[in-house]
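Box S2. Input/output pair 1.
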Amino acid sequence: MTLTVWQDWVAWGGIVLPLITLAWSAWQYVALQKRNEQQQRFDNFFRVMDKIGEPGGSIAAKAAAVYELRNYPEYSEVIARFCLEAVRYVSGDSAQILQAELRLTAAYFRDAADE
């Protein structure tokens, strides 16, 4: 059975076009998921920063939140500056615990930048 050239093109088009559409849709889905994940990380980062800056609350929770900042290397510059500046504003009965964690987190990012 012999097909003409245009029939060959139609047949190939019937296979290739849906595959291209499927690949484009998959790429769009992955790109959307990546944007959503980045937005969620951004929101989580600011929740952690809010936890550190909220008045009152336990020193242990704030120290844990400062430690959690190490999971956000994409914000390393601002975290290191924040930690170094925040040390002098921490006061209270257990201030040395939070001050130590702030210094350690700043050093963590400083050391990571040196590598």
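Box S3. Input/output pair 2.
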Amino acid sequence: MIREYALNPDVVVSDISILQRFFSEFGAEKGRLIIDVPEKWTLFLYRKIQKLNMKPVEKKGCLLGLEKIKKYGISPKSSFSVTEGDAWLSKVFESPAADDLHAILDEESVDDPKVFCYSNMLGEFPDDWELGQTESVERSADKMTEAVSISLRLAKALYLVDPYFDPRADRYRVPLLRFIEEIGKGRIGLKKLVIHTIEQSQDPVAPKNRAEIERGLNQHVQPCLPAGFQVDVWIRPLGSMHDRFLLTNMVGYSFGHGLNEDTSDPNSRVSINRLSASGRDEQWKFFANPEGRLGDVLSVVGT
């Protein structure tokens, strides 16, 4: 539900209509990230915008848009410098993110199936260019992970939010471990995620209280973790959360039926919705606040 692109800043400022289109098409909430070639891509573009014949209020609007792109639209650990006289396209292939690119958007297309002319994509454009906000996938750990795989691989911080999460149950533990496996395939090196959940003591036979959550982490999660990977659980007050989310430092997703798989019904599906930037910020701010946490953090680390 998100893709990485290389975008030549020269083509972005080649025409005012292309510049306007750029702001409407890029950013994590739109499902499109830009690799940082040239290094400090947004600053490079802003300097070019300053030279354009635009009104001050228009340039101010561009600055605000670029600040948002810098925060939510530049792919991490993708930087590669470009000096004057260098061919931009050749430097793209030297970026740490080169192998992960979905497409390259340049001033003109060349004899390469990954390279497209960004100024004219009426006839030819990258596969999956139009990414919907919502995707319905099979409710299995593999398919759920596949839908958000790039976000997991690029995450510098990650929250999983589900009031029903139970580390003792395979249906929750298997997707969790698949998410962690996918994180390990990325170039970021994230070594910790945080799960937010609540206690549920309605079932007298198998209550999901703090002691049982801790036991489930120690007995069923910790032995399966990669060495050095840490899983924290924050227990929240009853009634403080209902919706289920996967939130990273750049993008957020809501999971309609939760973060658990359902192997009992092959027709079971879950709707995954990519949040707007403001929606992601709202949820992140709430769950990042330790004042709403009950007791100390429960934590396990792989050995």
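Caption for Box S3: The chain has two domains: 3-117, 134-301. The mean pLDDT is 95.
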